[in-house]
Hints:
By secondary structure, the protein is α/β, with parallel strands linked by helices. Helix content is 39%, strand content 20%. It contains 14 helices and 15 strands. It has helices at 21-35, 60-67, 86-100, 122-136, 190-200, 218-235, 246-255, 261-279, 299-306, 322-331, 335-338, 345-349, 360-368, 373-381; strands spanning 6-10, 43-46, 50-54, 73-82, 106-113, 141-142, 149-155, 160-163, 167-171, 179-184, 203-211, 238-244, 284-286, 313-314, 384-388. The strands form two sheets. Strands 1, 2, 3, 4, 5, 6, 7, 8 and 9 form a nine-stranded mixed β-sheet that branches. 39% of the residues are buried. The structure holds adenosine-5'-triphosphate and magnesium ion. Magnesium ion binds at residues 186, 188, 344.
Amino acid sequence: xxxxxxxxxxxxxxxxxxxxxxxxxxxxxxxxxxxxxxxxxxxxxxxxxxxxxxxxxxxxxxxxxxxxxxxxxxxxxxxxxxxxxxxxxxxxxxxxxxxxxxxxxxxxxxxxxxxxxxxxxxxxxxxxxxxxxxxxxxxxxxxxxxxxxxxxxxxxxxxxxxxxxxxxxxxxxxxxxxxxxxxxxxxxxxxxxxxxxxxxxxxxxxxxxxxxxxxxxxxxxxxxxxxxxxxxxxxxxxxxxxxxxxxxxxxxxxxxxxxxxxxxxxxxxxxxxxxxxxxxxxxxxxxxxxxxxxxxxxxxxxxxxxxxxxxxxxxxxxxxxxxxxxxxxxxxxxxxxxxxxxxxxxxxxxxxxxxxxxxxxxxxxxxxxxxxxxxxxxxxxxxxxxxxxxxxxxxxxxxxxx
Length: 402
Ligand code: ATP
Ligand code: MG
């Protein structure tokens, strides 16, 4: 009986990052330790182009399940380390192969020799190990193009590693390797997806939500907390800022012509988010906007709203169709929370006919008659800051591999 004792992790994109490489690898190592913190025995060994999570008795299926969600991992393989002794390697290869083999399955060997002093070269390794399996497994067939089982053999300086399975990782860049940005998080479908895609590119996010009690309910707030929790499940704790927005929205409604209230509301949200960003050392703001989706998301609207800041605004969904956004929302498990029927502050105050082509100069002029500054300062000051933790994890799905 042979058991996998480690998981080989391939970085993909990170290994091309030049001088930043060490930082990326460090961040990835930290993410893995964070996500696997409930397995105190595990150890990470890293080399130039890969890492090994050494299980030390931890349940490989559960560990694999956690690894699947970590950004910066291209793919991974349960693996076993063996001494560089050809007979020992052959015995291990056969034992491992038999764990995966069922009648009728085809195979190939993919050997790599990083240690050039090893007596067999790549072709000879393929040959020697392929022959050994064919001799010992009746009716076994080779299929080089599309094998059912690809037994990988890597001979490195310190040992040889065998694996039979490659599992696709989450891709992207390690958590926090790209800096921090504020995610404007409504209760809708889009902004959690924008948050997820930003996290995938290595951004640390803090969420900002505008809340207008009593026009918006506690349940609307809970919805945003639940959405943030889903994001926390992806890359660890997420800070959530809840901004009390009622007074500002009421003032806008009293002072701004109704077809411009939506534009003014967005501008004020953006100004406040920018102040919170500044206080928390973020360098960008993320929104769930998608071009042309609703009145506030025409190019004219974005031009008029974006006017209040020079901070980069990242819009990961800008070119995406709604159906593609919904697909992602379903994969990250936020969709069903987003469609709960509690209104957010924009839905409550939305005018019946918002301008689809607002003019920047007009909205500037309407706002100039009102002194929003004290209310902005008060809203920033009264913002509630919460730290949302990940929930416990789903059941494992890779148990049978180990
Ligand atoms: P979503 O599905 O994310 O709510 P949407 O399609 O409803 O987006 P809008 O209502 O125009 O579009 O909102 C555009 C973006 O503005 C949102 O994606 C979000 O980033 C931000 N936003 C809207 N409402 C709020 C809010 N109450 N708090 C924080 N951000 C908000
Ligand atoms: Mg919305």
